Amino acid sequence: MLSSYRTYLKKEIKVDIFDILKNILPSLDLAFYRGFPDWSVVFLGDGIRHITGYDPEEFSGGKINWKDLVLPEDREKISTITREAIKHKKRQCLRTYRIKTLDGQIRWISDRGSLVYDSSGKLLWIDGIILDITKEKQLESILEKGKQEWQLTFDSIPNPIVISEPVKSSCVYSRVNKAFTERLGLHPRDVVNKHCKDVLGEAFTRDCLELSESKVIKERVAEISALGGYYHITNVPILNPQGDIEKIICIFNDITKLKESQDNLASLARELSFVIDSVSVMVIGINEEGIVYRWNRIAEGIFQTPASDIVGRPFRELSFPGDFVQRLIPAYDECLETKRPIQLDEVRLYTKEETRVLNFLIKPLFTTQNRACVFITGFDVTDRKNLEMMLVHSQKLEAIGALAAGIAHEINTPCQCVLSNLNFLREELSNVLEFLKICENMQDSENGDSLPFLREIGKAMNNIDVSFLMEEIPQALNQSLDCLNRVVRIVESIREFSHPGSQDKTFVDIHKLLESAVTISRNEWKYVADIQFDFDPTIPPILCYPNELSQVFLNLIVNAAQAIRDAIGDHPEKKGTIIIRTKRKDPWCEISVTDTGTGIPEEIRHKVFEPFFTTKPVGKGTGQGLAIAQAVIMKKHNGHIYFETEEGKGTTFFVLLPLGEAGGTTNHSTI
């Protein structure tokens, strides 16, 4: 009874174990199998599906043979390992090979099998486990590649490097790179496992002892005869988890040429300082920390401050009268932020004697840590600016001279009107004055008889047309006032236009500048064109050089009138039109002057802004008008000027000026 129970129990246990395996196997990335000499195989559970993508029944039913999955180049290796195992009657064999899965992937397989023989020693089958070791193989490949790359990198480093392990009071080299052995003239096997003192000397034993105590990176410079030169030596300790030194990496940086170059470099530095102090350009050097380290002779003269008072001070803390703090320091900060050169023009510096005008180029110079030193070169352009102002002023006077006859006519016409009205008033007022005199005499007379006076008053009244005078005298006075106001406007426009102006920008109503230019040039356009204004009332005052802008607007209006004259002739039956528009296009103010003239021929459009280019006959144009206009708009106002034209229909010139203070005061560009 007990025997049968045990037999039953064993059977039940076997069934339970089988069920357990059957339940567990699908969740594992492995497969149990029984394989036969003809490569047929039976798998237990669904594990093989996770590995190959095929169902176990496809193998047990003979639909798929395991040999079909094995890569052809690996089949002979499997057969060889199996034959060797059978030959020596081994019970175990391990085979590693590759298979191709259902979805075409290549997987690495670890096949560990137990060989089962019959009584005669013939192989019956192999029971085993198949594991997917693809990830392990990939990691092995990555590690092997990493080792190769590490060794290649290690040997490609031009600096000699050794890795040593501390041994008692010394250290032994465990790995050396190619540069180290080449400097020694030895093979790596002649260096590895040697004590450092036997290779480079006792000094390196002391390095090991010091490093063992401090456990921090140590650096020193020494002449190493074995390596032939001066070296900067860096000893880096590698600590284990317990905090003890496990390895020491020693890096040798050959500074022999550097040592030889130090004297030459010092000499060059002295020569450079001499050159910088000799040039006629201001030079300011600022290091990575923002400290001024160079302040040459020209800088001393312009700022009237010796280098001894500046060098060593933070650049941002410097202050000089004028635009230094407001413009130069912000431009320096922008240069550091954008890492691009900044061109800064027309910086004012106030000295005791005069106001100087300076242009600066602020350029970053990057260090190996990608930090920027800044080199500032400055040019004193005061004399040039004065000449430019004189040139612009002379151009304005030249324009006034060219318009003088027309301006005289514009003034003469209202003056003639006033003169005519005054003659009329003088003539008519003589009778009125005679009448008033009679009245005065009558009042002063002591004679009580008023009859003679009444007869004289009647006679005087006959000479005066009272109703006529009451109507005409107010008209004559109003007409004279209008004419005089017109003269005043013309004279005021001429005065504003011809004034040299200041070197500083001011906020100006752009519409008043345009109206003044139209007033001054009236005689140029009134016989050939009508002027139309289309002003945008939302445009605020513009920060600009008003006199120079007036010159630009005058040139554009006169050019438009001349273009219309060329189109319709000197005696037109129908006038042309000049339209002056302003429009707010944030952040710009757009001014346009449109004419109905001849347009600009395509072959000369690219020359329009060139100096001295003109289409007028000799003696009637200098070709400077639009060239100066471009310089004034683009260089002095950071604006734009361009044109659109169509032959036979006319031309529109556009001027874009920055709105507000920001556009007007920056006056610098990023290069």
Verbal overview:
This protein has 21 helices and 23 strands. The chain has a six-stranded antiparallel β-sheet, sandwiched between helices. It has five domains: 2-139, Beta-Lactamase; 157-254, PAS domain (Beta-Lactamase); 292-380, PAS domain (Beta-Lactamase, 2-Layer Sandwich); 404-490; 501-670, Heat Shock Protein 90.
User: Which structural class best describes the helix and strand composition?
Assistant: alpha+beta
Rg of Cα set: 51 Å
Instruction: Figure out the total of helices.
Output: 21
Strand order of the largest sheet: 12-11-15-14-13-23
Main sheet makeup = 6 strands, antiparallel
What is the typical, i.e. mean, pLDDT? 80
CATH architecture of the largest domain: 2-Layer Sandwich
Helix content: 40-55%
End-to-end C-alpha gap: 105 Å
What's the topology here?
Elements: H1 2-24, E1 30-35, E2 41-44, H2 47-52, H3 56-60, H4 66-69, H5 72-87, E3 92-100, E4 106-117, E5 123-132, H6 134-156, E6 161-167, E7 170-176, H7 178-184, H8 196-199, H9 202-214, E8 218-224, E9 229-239, E10 245-254, H10 256-278, E11 282-286, E12 292-295, H11 297-303, H12 324-338, E13 342-350, E14 355-366, E15 372-380, H13 382-402, H14 404-444, H15 451-462, H16 466-498, E16 506-508, H17 510-520, H18 522-525, E17 529-534, E18 542-544, H19 546-568, E19 576-585, E20 588-595, H20 625-636, E21 640-646, E22 650-658, H21 660-665, E23 668-670
Parallel strand pairs: 17-19
Antiparallel strand pairs: 1-2, 1-5, 3-4, 4-5, 6-7, 6-10, 8-9, 9-10, 11-12, 11-15, 13-14, 13-23, 14-15, 16-18, 19-20, 20-22, 21-22
